Amino acid sequence: MEVFVARQPILTVENNVYAYELLYRNSEENRFVPMDGSQATSEVLMNSFVTIGLERLSNNKPCFINFTEDLLLEQVPEYFDSEQLVVEILEHVSFSLDLIRVCRTLKEKGYLIALDDVIDIDRPSVYELLHYVDILKVDIREVTDENRARIIQLGEEYGLTLLAEKVETHEEHQRCIEEGFSLFQGFYFSKPVIVKGMDIPFLSSTYFQMIKELTATDDEINIEKVTEIMEQDLALTYKLLRLINSSQQRTRVPIQSIRQAVMLLGTEGLKKWLYVLSVEQTTAVTSTQSQLVIKTSLVRAKLCEQMAVRIRAEKKADGYFLTGFMSLIDVITQRPAHEVIGSLPLDEEIKKALEGKQNTYRLVLDLAVAMEKADFEWLENHLAEWNLSYSEVFEVYGQAIAWSEQLYHEHFTDMV
To answer: InterPro entries annotated for this entry (predicted)?
Structure first.
């Protein structure tokens, strides 16, 4: 399933790209289709940070993203990396005390906050918020000259950065520079450009199982059960790994198992993540090709896990499972393997195996592929190295198929 995000550069006085604003789009047609603001923002967050990735979308420069009041009060911005996200507050929020507390917390945690479409700043509640705002985005096409002068004055008094938006001519650009604006955005520099990616739909059934597990009290949440659910859904696992790379929980410790990823994110992180997904949407996997790829991934994962036991590497069985599970991620995302794998916080040996480099993880994965292809020549040349017989491997392969068939029946039969 293709997803789309529009990006528009925000430039400095020297015409260098300072950041990008990311905008909701639902097709390659470059226009906004009216929809619920929270849903639009949630889709932009997931499509940008998880599906497409900021390395492709913005060359890892900061991204301005509009947040509705509901998403701010749910503290959704806190999950994403403060060095990558600029929190843009829409002009029609209530500026309540609760919202001001959220902004104070965001500021303390290192986030930049921008106030969007400023044309009239003389509202009492705005002044308290200005203590926590970093950037004023001034709509130069709508603001009156009187309000414009007042906003520029307040920017100087509060030490705020002024961003001129909707700049369309050279003359407007020059005037803004003379008035003290230091950031600029508009058609004069660039129209929004559409960037697209390939999303992996997750299973509604596993999603709702996760919701059920995580609605228990913290001391009743079963991490093993949560991990088991994640192990059934390639999309949730992939998005979990991508999200870790884009979040405040970004790790220097390489991920060796799905359980480790779940533990790293924590129950509160998982709840926030699932909240964003729930606002975005739940989409069933209906493509026959997607179902086949996911089913094959499950078989490979279980086979690799059980082969780890047979070759006396049971302590790393979770890593072998993860290797098999992620081995077709390039197929389902329709992106080069090195690009996809490079964006995940995986253990280096698992990464090498997924990129086709030889190590023990790769050898076991190759065994799984050989079983799929009935490549008996490969099997004959390698099984002796591990002192394994054909009967052992066929038994494990049969068990892996049975396990995946059961999951397939549980999750897909209601959809076809």
So the answer is: dGMP_Pdiesterase_EAL/HD-GYP (IPR014408), EAL_dom (IPR001633), EAL_sf (IPR035919), HDOD (IPR013976), RNase_Y/CdgJ (IPR052340)
157 pLDDT more than 80 = yes
Q: Is the pLDDT of residue 331 over 80?
A: yes
Could you tell me how many residues make up the chain? 416
Q: Last residue of some domain: 152, 174, 196?
A: 196
How many angstroms separate the CA atoms of 66 and 266, rounded? 26
9 and 148 share one domain: yes
Residue at which a domain ends, from 196, 214, 243: 196
Q: In this structure, is residue 237 part of a structural domain? A: yes
| Separation between Cα atoms, residue 102 and residue 318, nearest integer Å | 39
Q: Do 267 and 291 share a domain, yes or no?
A: no
* Residues 253 and 306 placed together within one structural domain of the fold: no
Nearest to 163 by CA among 230, 221, 216, 118: 118
Cβ atoms of 217 and 78 closer than 8 Å: no
Are 22 and 101 members of one domain? Answer: yes
- Predicted TM-score (pTM) of the model is 0.73
Q: Dihedral of CA 91/92/97/101: which sign? A: negative
Domain containing residue 94: CATH number: 3.20.20.450
Domain membership of residue 218 (yes or no) is yes
